[in-house]
Amino acid sequence: MFVPLGMKQTQWRDDFTRIVKGRAIAYVLGKDGYRQQMPFENAYGNGGLLTTVDDLLRWDQALSAGELGKFVTEELQRQTLLNGGRPIAYARGLFVQSYHGLREVSHSGATAGYRAWLGRYPQQNLSIALLCNAGDADVVRLAHSVADLFLPKLMPKQALGSAPTLSLSPEQLTEHVGLYFGLPTGSALQVTALDGSLRVGAGAVLVAQSPDAFTLGSSTVRFTSRDHFNLEDDSGGIQAFDRVQPWHPTAEQLTAFVGRYASDETLSTWVVSITGGKLELVPLDRRTTPLTLTPVYENTFWLEPRTTGAVGFSFDSHRQVSGFDWHTPRVYSLHFVRISADEGPH
Description:
By secondary structure, this protein is mainly beta. The protein contains 5 helices and 24 strands. An 8-stranded antiparallel β-barrel has the order 9-10-11-12-13-14-15-16. An 8-stranded antiparallel β-barrel has the order 17-18-19-20-21-22-23-24. Strands 5-6-7-8 form a 4-stranded antiparallel sheet, sandwiched between helices.
């Protein structure tokens, strides 16, 4: 498929030890700076493609021009229907969404320390390919920053973000400021007030449509009470977020979580230990870079890097730690049982 399309720099990673000319080494940011984080398996399909931004744009051009044939072109972008009939953003390997009210066909990617994004805005004839070799790169934000440079020029009669907005008083803004946590994905959003607007952290702006409804990119944040909001995506998906109080545990409180935890579902055992005053999580059977546990709210921690989700510890009737649930956007509430308060060899 690649040869007829002229994708001369594209190949499969069928031998991860093979030297590839011009290949960028992947890195991940750790406690002591960047470290190498390369894929250590042979893979076809997801995560197994070696390519360049030029070849990715050639692929996107072929898809836009229908060079892959009518059937493939249409089916790759046919959005999936749930049993209830509601379409979702995911199609067949592509997300069909909107950005600033424009149709966006895209997909991000991540494997080891590599990050990627490929997308296009069909009506504007704009395609963007982005590749990074740092695991902490936010490719969606970077790609949208590139899009923001070009989309206004391609829309002379229309300004991005031209939907009517509402100015809120400082009191109305302050009411929504706080930390919100969402299950079952383990996502957390820090809502702040800055320069007369609500923001996620110090970044994306929540554009007010009413005192309780805001647009966030292609999604809507809708407050149903002072301590709760729903994040609604443009395909009708809803994730609930509740206000939580930040937690700053003492060293003694952290000690209570130390131990070994096992999951029958994954047949794995993980170790929670303390290093430098912080909890760390590492698999028992192999030495890897530990995941750092950062407190979010009482007995619940983010895992660093954030893409690995969050863990919430549970207690028995004697108020002893009995296990934890691991929450990620792809795995909901994976349960681990505490099997020992001893760290064990690791």
